[in-house]
């Protein structure tokens, strides 16, 4: 079963992260994670709950176990994202900053009974020839979002980046990567 494979991969990933986090992360890991994702140092500082100044003052092994774990989880997430987006870092960075209806869940403060998210007809999202072009899909998604934003009744969906300061948010974004990876459109 696909679900069992995914779950066991997550379990193995978590087991590898714990000993690394307990040894405490180095400042170089922040740079590595920022480079993987295309995020700025300021955005990275926000994700791990530090000021930019405190981040620059941190040296090897000065991060707490909780911040170290968060950095290792972000690294694993961004590696997964790059694999999904065929190593296109700019596409990943733009995707992280694009509001997604898929993230409008109770965990992010959306009441599923009050929010109406219209499903797209299958013929609009199905691909009839060749592999799915992720860059074209990202551009189309951005155009659709811009059109929705100008409508008077649009809903402010969360961006993946806005959720990455919590473990739950990392899990939600990773779930979206997995759905993209397996071709599950929502």
What does this 3D model show about the protein?
It contains ten helices and no strands. The chain has helices spanning 2-22, 27-37, 41-47, 52-57, 65-84, 89-96, 122-125, 134-150, 160-163, 167-181. The longest helix has 21 residues, at 2-22.
Q: What share of the residues lie within helices?
A: 55-70%
Number of strands: 0
Rg calc: 18 Å
**SSE succession:** HHHHHHHHHH
Low-confidence blocks of residues: 1-12
Which word captures the global form?
Answer: elongated
Structural class: mainly alpha
SS summary, helix count: 10
Domain Antitoxin Xre-like helix-turn-helix: 19-74
Protein name: Antitoxin Xre-like helix-turn-helix domain-containing protein
GO molecular function, one term: DNA binding
InterPro entries: Xre-like_HTH
């Amino acid at each position: 079963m696909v679900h069992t494979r995914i779950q066991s991969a997550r379990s193995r990933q978590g087991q590898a992260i714990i000993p690394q986090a307990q040894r405490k992360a180095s400042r170089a890991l922040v740079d590595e994670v920022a480079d993987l994702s295309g995020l700025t140092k300021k955005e990275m500082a926000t994700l791990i709950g530090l000021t930019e100044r405190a981040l620059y003052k941190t040296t090897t092994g000065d991060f707490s176990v909780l911040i170290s774990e968060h950095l290792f989880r972000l690294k694993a997430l961004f590696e997964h994202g790059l694999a999904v987006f065929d190593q296109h870092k700019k596409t990943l960075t733009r995707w992280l900053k694009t509001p997604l209806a898929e993230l409008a869940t109770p965990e992010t403060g959306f009441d599923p009974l009050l929010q109406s998210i219209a499903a797209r007809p299958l013929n609009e999202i199905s691909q009839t020839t060749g592999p799915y072009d992720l860059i074209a899909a990202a551009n189309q998604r951005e155009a659709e979002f811009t059109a929705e934003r100008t409508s008077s009744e649009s809903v402010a969906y969360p961006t993946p980046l806005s959720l990455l300061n919590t473990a739950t948010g990392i899990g939600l974004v990773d779930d979206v990567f997995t759905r993209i990876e397996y071709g599950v459109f929502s």
